[in-house]
Each structure stands twice: as C-alpha cells, then as structure tokens.
Specification:
Layout (H helix, E strand, L loop, with lengths): L10 E5 L8 H10 L4 E5 L9 H13 L3 E10 L10 H11 L3 E5 L10 H20 L3 E4 L10 H10 L6 E4 L7 H11 L3 E6 L15 H12 L8 E4 L7 H23 L2
Parallel strand pairs: 1-2, 1-8, 2-3, 3-4, 4-5, 5-6, 6-7, 7-8
Helix pairs in contact: 2-3, 5-6, 6-7, 7-8
C-alpha cells in the first residue's frame, strides 16, 4: 500500500518511543487500530543504531501492515557523536535499510546560551557532512527542536538552518513546554520554510500530559501555520507521548489529530 498525502495536510502518525516498553509488533498493531498512516521508529530501543537485521525486519513489518516508515528517530548528535563512538555511517545504513526517507538528529549537546562559536561551528560542520551523506543515499536529515541543543530557541534554530542550508537540512518543530501560545506560533512561522515534520502532544506548563483534544485551539493554529509553509508544509504530524503512557489513549489522540488535519485541509481548499 502506498501512503500519499491528501491535499496539503500532514499525514498523522506515531513516534515509536511513545511506547518504549512495547515491541515493534505491538506498536504496528496499535497504529493500525488508531488508523494512523505511519511510524517514526526510534533508534534507541525499537531499531537500534547499527542493527541492520532489526531495521530490515521492522521496515518490512511496517509496510506489510499498510503503514509508512515516516522517519528514523536517531540519537546522533551533530558535532559530538562521532567522537563518542556513534558513527553516522552506521545510523545512515540503519535508516536506509529501514526505508526511512528522513533521519532525525540532535543539534549538539549544549543549549544555545552555553555554546560558543567553536561549538556552533562544529555542530554546523558535522551537520553539513551528515546531510550530504544522507542526500547521496536518497534521504534527508532534520534536527530535533529541543532544549539542551542549538535548536532550543527560535533564533538559534534559524541561525543553524542558515548555516546548514547548502546541505538541505530541515527541522522538526514541537511546542516547548512553558512557552506562550504566541511565542510558539511565532517560532513555527519563522521556522516553517525549513519544516520537516511536527511532533504532536499536549502538555500543561507543569509538564503534565493531557489528552490531545484539550489542545484543540493551539494545535489548530499550529497546523494552519504549518500547512502554509513554503514547499507545502510538513509531511507528517507525529503523535509523541500520551497521557499516562497509556496505549488506550492513542486512539483518542489519533482521532483528534486526524479530525484537525482534515479540517485544516478543507479550509485551505475554500475559495
């Protein structure tokens, strides 16, 4: 089965590390029952870096179920991991064997406030290298948008995207916990020309995970901003974490996300 995006809305999927304790077979079954379209497989537990046999098995399992491999969520840190024993060549081989069109990496291991020019240059240089290597293999690389890295603020992320533009790097986006809605929307809008996928969840400022449906207002605005992005917007909106880590919550969150994606797509078709 070929998964194709309808209109401009991103396809709904799941980040596998949402359920780290479940084996891949159970995750595939959950995603099928929730009527999602694909999975971003994590590189720590479900498809470990360098485990080509597991990558081949999980990739086939995913496609046989009529689902897509949305991405490979690696734990490669640009500018750091090569020196710590995790070679990008191993990550890339795993991603290609899995059949992932996109590899998620991390922008170093320091927050922007703690990173000097040498650190920023090291991360950017390595990111350009891995981006070029992935492109040669038919894949792309995108940064995680996350605290403790050079994508912890919008300004720093924009600067990093400019520094790696020649290698075609992209970025994920997710609403940082504690940010105002206005700041989140501004961040997403500024990063939209470089947007790969969205990580979707609804947390309170305390970090408490809530049902996604409770975040309808903010998430509808984020999806509207995302589909307006240059190049047609993100390919995937991937659910990441659910209330109480409960697999039963996935179906409810998936239904909400799918409904919003359809609504935004229909809005875009109106004259």
């Amino acid at each position: 089965m070929t998964i194709t995006r309808i209109g401009r809305r991103p396809l709904p999927g799941l980040v596998s590390i949402t359920f780290r304790g479940l084996p891949p077979r159970e995750i595939v079954d959950l995603v099928q029952r929730a009527q999602l379209a694909g999975i971003e497989w994590g590189g720590d537990v479900h498809v470990p870096h360098g485990d080509v046999m597991r990558a081949r098995e999980v990739g086939a399992m995913t496609r046989d179920a009529g689902l897509a491999v949305a991405a490979y969520g690696s734990y490669y840190r640009a500018g750091e991991s090569e020196g710590e024993g995790l070679e990008f060549a191993r990550v890339l081989e795993t991603a290609v064997t899995l059949g992932a069109p996109l590899i998620r990496v991390w922008a170093g291991n320091r927050g922007s406030a703690d990173a000097d020019k040498a650190c920023r240059d090291r991360v950017a240089e390595d990111a350009r290298r891995v981006g070029a290597a992935a492109a040669a293999a038919g894949a792309r690389v995108a940064f995680e948008f996350h605290s403790g890295t050079l994508t912890d603020t919008t300004g720093s992320a924009v600067e990093l995207m400019a520094a790696t533009a020649e290698a075609g790097l992209l970025t994920y986006w997710q609403p940082p916990v504690g940010w105002t809605h206005a700041d989140c929307l501004d961040s997403l809008t500024r990063l939209s020309p470089h947007l790969a996928n969205l990580h979707v969840f609804h947390w309170l400022h305390t970090g408490e995970r809530r049902p996604l449906a409770e975040g309808a207002g903010p998430w509808l605005s984020y999806l509207r901003a995302a589909v307006a992005a240059r190049g047609g917007g993100p390919r995937w909106a991937l659910l990441e974490y659910v209330r109480d880590n409960n697999p039963a919550q996935l179906a409810e969150d998936a239904a909400a996300l799918t409904e919003w994606a359809v609504q935004v797509d229909m809005e875009g078709e109106r004259p």
